[in-house]
Amino acid sequence: MLERMSQLEAEADAALSAVEDAAALEAFRIEYLGSKGKLKAAMAWLKDASKEDKPKLGAGLNVLKQKIEGAFEEKKAALGDAKPHAAKGPAIDVTEPGLPPRTGRVHVLTQVINELVEVFARMGFDVERGPEIEDDHHNFVALNIPPHHPARDPNDNFYIDDTHLLRTQTSTVQIRVMEKTEPPVRIVSLGRVYRPDTHDATHSSMFHQIEGLYVDKDVSMVDLKTTLLQFAHAMFGPEAEVRLRPSYFPFTEPSAELDIKMQVRGVYDWVEIGGCGMVDPAVFEAVGYDPEVWTGFAFGLGIERVAMRRYGIEDIRWLYENDVRFLRQF
Ligand code: DAH
After folding, report:
1. Degrees (nearest 5) of the Cα angle 330, 107, 170?
2. How far apart are CA 189 and CA 170, in angstroms?
C-alpha cells in the first residue's frame, strides 16, 4: 500500500512538471484532485488496509494530498505570472544590439599630439624627447640667450637651483639633438613647458609645445613655409593659409611669427600659432655645426592653441580639469 502511495506521488510530480499552460493545469487538477480523481480513489485503499497499516496509510495519504495541492497552487501562481501571449524563449533578446560598454578615451590634447606626430612623420620628421628639468645651457646659453637677457628673469621662470629650471620652451631639444647627431637633422619634439603665468582662459603655467628642426645644406625660408603650409592643411583643412610676420627670437635669423588663416566658430580669420625662423649661426656654433656648410629652419608651436582653435575650445583650463562631460565630446 505504502509503495503504491509513493508511486502515486512520483506520478503526480512528473505530471505536474510537464504542465506548461492553464489548460494542462486544469486537466491535472481533474485527474489528481478532482472528485473522481486519483487521490480520491487512493482514499479507498484504506478500506482494504490491515488494522496496523490503516493509521500510517491515512496519515500518509493526507500528507500526500497536501503536497499535491501545494504544488498545484505553486504551479498555478507561476503560470499566472506569465504574460498570456508571452513569446517562448529566453527573457533576454540576444538579437538586440548590445549597450556600448563605458570605456575611457584618449584625452583631446593627446589626440592632437598623436595627429601632429603623424603629420610630421609623413614629411620625414622623427620624434625626439628631452627632459622637462633643464639646465641653463640648453634652455638659454646654447639658444643664444645671453646671461643678462630678460628671458632669464627669475619671475619668468621656475628655477630649481641656480642652474636648473623647468624648461620654458621645447627649443631645448633642438640643442640636445644637434649635440648628439651629425647633420642632416629632421625632428619634431612634443612636450610640456612651464612658465609662471597667472591662470586665465588663455594662460596656464604648464602647457605643451611642438618644436621642429630641419638642418641640411641649402635649406631656405621656402622650405619652412612649405612645411608649415602642409601642417596647416593637415590640421585645419585645405582652405587654411599660412602667413609669416617678421619677429625676433634669439635662436633664429630671420625670425617670424606664424599665423594661420582658418575657420574658427564660423569666422575665417588669422590666428597666431607660434614662432619660427632660420636657425641662427650662433646656435650652430654652440653645437659644433659649421654654419658655413649647414643651414636650417626651426619652429615652435603651442599645442593647446592648435587644439583650441581646431575645436573651438574657449578656455585652456578646461583641458586640465578632467571633467568627463567636457572630455567625452572629443
Ligand atoms: N621657443 C619659442 C617660444 O617658446 C618658440 C619658437 C620660436 C621656437 C622660433 C622656434 C623658433 O623653434 O624658431 O616662444
Report:
1. 125
2. 7
Name which residue sits closest to atom 7 of ligand 1, judged by CA: 275
Q: Is the CB of 297 under 6 A from ligand 1?
A: no
- C-beta of residue 191 within 8 angstroms of C-beta of residue 129: yes
189 lines ligand 1 (CB under 6 A): no
Measure 300 CA to ligand 1 centroid, in angstroms: 4
Mind listing the pLDDT tens digit for each residue in 125-159? 999 999 999 999 999 999 999 988 999 999 999 99
Q: Give yes or no: residues 194 and 312 share one domain.
A: yes
CA of 238 to the centre of ligand 1 (A): 25
Lowest mean pLDDT, pick from 82-86, 94-98, 185-189, 238-242: 82-86
Q: pLDDT tens digits, residue range 109-131?
A: 999 999 999 999 999 999 999 99
Nearest-angstrom CA–CA distance, 144 and 136: 11
List the residue whose alpha carbon is closest to atom 8 of ligand 1: 300
pLDDT band of residue 292 (cuts 50, 70, 90) is: very high
In a domain, 103, yes or no: no
Do 34 and 177 belong to one domain?
A: no
Between CA 197 and CA 205 the distance in angstroms is: 5
- The CATH number that applies at residue 162 is 3.30.930.10
Structure pTM?
Answer: 0.71
Q: Which domain holds residue 22?
A: 2-88
Pocket test for ligand 1, best of 149, 171, 210, 248 (most atoms within 8 A of CB): 171
Whether residue 95 lies inside any domain: the answer is no
- Identity of the residue numbered 44: A
CB 139 less than 6 A from any atom of ligand 1: no
Cell of 89: 524563449
Residue 277 near ligand 1, beta carbon < 6 Å: yes
